[in-house]
Amino acid sequence: MQNIVGIDIGGSHITMAQVDPEKREIIASTYVREHVDSFGDREHIFSAWISAIEKVTHNLVKEDLLIGIAMPGPFDYENGVSLMQQGKFIDIYHVNIKDELADRLKISTTQIHFLNDAGAFLEGEVFGGCVQDYNRIFGVTLGTGLGTAFYNGETASDEDLWNSPFKDSISEDYLATRWFVNHYAALTGKIVSGTKDLLDEPEEMQTIIFDDYADSFAEFIVNYVRDYNPEVLVIGGNIAKVYPYFKNRLNQHLTEHKINLPIKISAIFEDAAILGAAGYALKKARINLTK
User: Fold this and answer.
1) Which residues, including other chains, have CB under 8 Å from residue 264's CB and lie 6 or more apart?
2) Are 2 and 21 a contacting pair, CB within 8 Å?
3) How is residue 212 annotated by DSSP?
4) What is the pLDDT of residue 291?
5) Residue 256 and residue 139 share a domain
6) β-strand 112-116 against 75-76: which pairing, if any?
7) If DSSP codes are grouped into helix, strand and coil, which group holds residue 269?
8) Angle between the 272-290 and 117-128 helix axes, to the nearest 10 degrees?
9) Dihedral-angle region of residue 100 (phi above 0 means left; psi in -120 to 50 means alpha; beta otherwise)
10) Helices marked H in the chain
11) 110 lies in the same domain as 146
12) Within 10 A of 256 (CB to CB), how many other CB atoms are there?
């Protein structure tokens, strides 16, 4: 069996696990999640990453190892070079991360493959999640931010629609968690931290807020998603967990616009990026073998 590790690098953590390519699932006993100070210096960041990776790969034959890494942008994914100029990971700007990791892990750069984190979520759902039987798939992650990706039958690409023009602002302002926080505060003068808190509210208040959210989400689908002509829409992120509260209103709007789009909720949530990174690495390795 091919030895594959999927890695999800975020702004404050690195999360990873070995993946069984035949069962298309994470090997739970190998799961590692560690804090990383992304504002730290270059050596601190790499040391933290390597320490975590070695915990997952210590029992694997290095020559047979494949590593897939989901990474936020901006980033040169083909060459493995960070293009993040401000905020998090600023000290590794223009550093070739693929070369650094390969050298420190004592493996070839051809064993490491990077992809965008939004694309990794969708690759994970295609590889081992809820849309394995579809070819044209649009993926949306709804949480702290808005992630969008499209799978064309071969690979998932980040569509970067978070800042697309929407109403009087951008799409993310109406579809991410902060919209719920701000809208609830405007209606009640009180504070919630996210959608989970809203489930403790009276049904009447829930209906108002989730109906308003459904209206915006439907408008986003009409304005942007429909043009991709997807066979299915898959939703991940924390807001996907409250989908039953805005499902009916959303589907009503889609029907009114004659959009027949099945909606699937992520089967693997937080693990999707790890699975997707691993599946992508396996796909790239197979493509390289045929060249």
Assistant:
1) 125, 130, 131, 232, 233, 234, 235
2) yes
3) H
4) 56
5) yes
6) unpaired
7) helix
8) 80
9) alpha
10) 42-57, 97-105, 117-128, 171-175, 177-188, 195-198, 203-220, 243-256, 272-290
11) no
12) 10
Q: How far apart are CA 77 and CA 79, in angstroms?
A: 6
Residue 234 lies in a domain: yes
CA-nearest of 57, 23, 14 to 127 is 23
Given a cut of 90, whether residue 1 has pLDDT beyond it is no
Q: The domain containing residue 86 runs over which residues?
A: 3-120+271-290
154 and 115: one domain?
no
Q: Is there a contact between 82 and 69 (Cβ–Cβ < 8 Å)?
A: no
Burial tier of 251 (Cβ tally within 10 Å: 0-12, 13-18, 19+): middle
Q: Looking at the structure, do residues 236 and 284 belong to the same domain, yes or no?
A: no
pTM of the predicted model as reported, rounded to 2 decimal places: 0.90
- How far is 53 from 105, CA to CA, in rounded Å? 9
Distances (CA, A) of 227 to 60, 129, 232: 44, 24, 13
Evaluate whether residue 39 is within a structural domain. Answer: yes
Is 128 within the bounds of a domain?
no
Convert the pLDDT of each residue in 46-79 to its tens digit.
999 999 999 999 988 888 899 999 998 889 999 9
Would 114 be classed as within a structural domain? yes
- Are 79 and 175 within one domain? no
Residue 189 in this model has a pLDDT that exceeds 80: yes
Residue-by-residue DSSP string for 37-63: -TTS-HHHHHHHHHHHHHHHHTTS-GG
